[in-house]
Design brief:
Layout lengths: L6 H13 L5 E5 L7 H14 L4 E5 L3 H7 L3 E5 L2 E6 L1 H4 L7 E7 L10 E8 L2 E7 L9 E2 L4 H9 L6
Parallel strand pairs: 1-2
Antiparallel strand pairs: 3-4, 5-7, 5-8, 6-7
Length: 161
């Protein structure tokens, strides 16, 4: 029974079922969620091979998958398209809006509109990655935007679509 298989094996069965008909368009929704890193890589490689000669629509929130498996990205926010282009251009949506600041735990004061992307403990301090239109605090330094930064900037709460 398929229900007893691992997530990766269930994904393979679904792909095999799809390939029996060799459709011109394949649609996958969150195809790598729940897979371990090795299976995620194998599955992305399989999707890349399947895309030769056909269209593969890939719906996901896993930015790493988009970066390595997609030639074109369309980002929707509140039912509207806010980006349509190559993955390498998506990071540009956050250009000049990415900041990194180091501070002691709980001592970083940010404006309300600033979005914390991640916080990494570094001994006695915390390195915080921030998205903000303007420099969010005195200790903030400008940083290069990533694909994830671009995506988060486009879909942030209150973003004009």
């Amino acid at each position: 029974r398929i229900g007893g298989f691992s997530g990766g094996m269930r994904q393979r069965v679904a792909v095999a079922r799809t390939l029996l008909r060799l459709p011109a368009v394949i649609i996958v929704d969150e195809p790598t969620v729940g897979l371990d890193p090795r299976e995620r890589i194998r599955f992305r490689n399989l999707l890349s091979r399947l895309a030769e000669g056909r269209v593969v629509l890939f719906s996901t929130h896993v930015v790493d998958d988009v970066e390595v498996a997609c030639e074109r990205v369309i980002v929707f926010s509140r039912g509207r398209i806010v980006f349509d282009g190559e993955p390498s251009r998506l990071a540009g949506a956050a250009r000049d809006r990415v900041w990194v600041a180091e501070s002691k735990e709980g001592e970083l004061a940010l404006p309300e509109e600033a979005l914390i992307v991640d916080q990494v403990p570094m001994g006695e301090t915390v390195r915080t990655r921030i998205l903000s239109e303007d420099k969010p605090c005195d200790q903030a330094e400008a940083a290069s935007p990533s694909l994830q930064d671009g995506y988060l900037w486009l879909v942030r709460e209150g973003a004009a679509a």
